[in-house]
Amino acid sequence: MAMDRRKFIRTTALSTGLAVAGGLASASCGLQGKKDASAAAGSSKAKDVKLNISFQENTAPGESLSEKFDFMEKLGVTGFEPWGGGLYDRVTSIQDALKGRNIKISAVCAGFEGWLLADDDAIKQKCIDSSKRIIEAAGALGAAGMILVPAFNSQKSWPHTLETRERLVNELRELAQFAEQHKTSLILEPLNRREAFYLRLVSDAAAICKDVDSKGIACMGDFWHMTWEETSDYGAFLSGGKYLNHVHIASRKRRRMPGEDGEADNYIDGFNALKAMDYQGFISFECGTEEDRNVVVPAAVDLIKKQWEMDC
Ligand code: MG
């Protein structure tokens, strides 16, 4: 029997709607469809994905790198994210401090001069030259890459136009190819609108990576910035796809140690996406605290480990 056209449209619309709703439900674990998302991420493969935690320079208590690394090893923290400024001259001392330890350099946090979207060529060139020096150090240290923000709100830049985007992609391609030569990458970090209007979404960073089209380009997600910009932690990380190679974490109201903002500090939705993607990179602390680091840092690591094991 031939299907009535109106009935066909109604049936198709209904099934399409359900499929879309199901996909969104899976992608928005933490709001609705928790069981669907759990099923998506809960395969044996997803459960076996290893949690790799990293600290920035000021996360652990201690005066020296050696003291900080001792503290990290006791907590099972296996990644270290140094500041990029002056890193070139610290490569040997960092390599020495890492000898015999189960700690790797996760990524290098910025530290370059100038900014890439500058409307002043001298400032842009300063960014390129200083970034290359940091990228060399990042490669020597075995880091996944150097984190870069194209421009902060306070930095006078080209307007947000198609031409600017093409210029940016070309500049990034030069740096990405340089990074690839040094066996590392350039990692684009989206920020929230109060810090950087230009690049705010993980999906946009990944789309720029696609346009750059180099093995030396990557992107990351920062839970702090994602809190304000993304509609779904799960969807944000998933949209990073093959380009996602680093993650930052902080409490979700005040950018302190995870857990200091109580129930707001729920990362399970995002963790489920990372597990489903078989994410092999690090989750690196980028946050401050006014409390005793000897107390709140181990508590934060414990919280992250527990949430990593949970499906929502
Ligand atoms: Mg960050």
Textual characterization of the structure:
- This protein has 312 residues and is an alpha/beta fold.
- The protein has a single domain (34-309), classed as TIM Barrel, CATH 3.20.20.
- Helices cover 47% and strands 10% of the residues.
- The protein is built from 12 helices and 8 strands.
- The chain has helices spanning 5-27, 34-41, 44-47, 65-75, 91-98, 121-140, 162-181, 202-212, 223-229, 233-240, 268-276, 293-309; strands at 53-56, 79-81, 104-105, 146-148, 186-188, 217-222, 244-249, 283-285.
- Strands 3-2-1-8-7-6-5-4 form an 8-stranded parallel sheet.
- α7 (162-181) crosses α8.
- The structure holds magnesium ion (MG).
- Magnesium ion binds next to loops.
> Which segments are poorly predicted (pLDDT under 50) over 5 or more consecutive residues?
1-42
Bound molecules: magnesium ion
CATH superfamily: Divalent-metal-dependent TIM barrel enzymes
The major sheet is characterized as: 8 strands, parallel
What is the CATH-assigned architecture?
Answer: Alpha-Beta Barrel
Order of helices and strands: HHHEHEHEHEHEHEHHEHEH
Cα-atom radius of gyration:
21 Å
State the total count of DSSP E strands. Answer: 8
Binned, the helix content reads 40-55%
Report the total helices. Answer: 12
In terms of DSSP E residues, the strand content is 5-15%
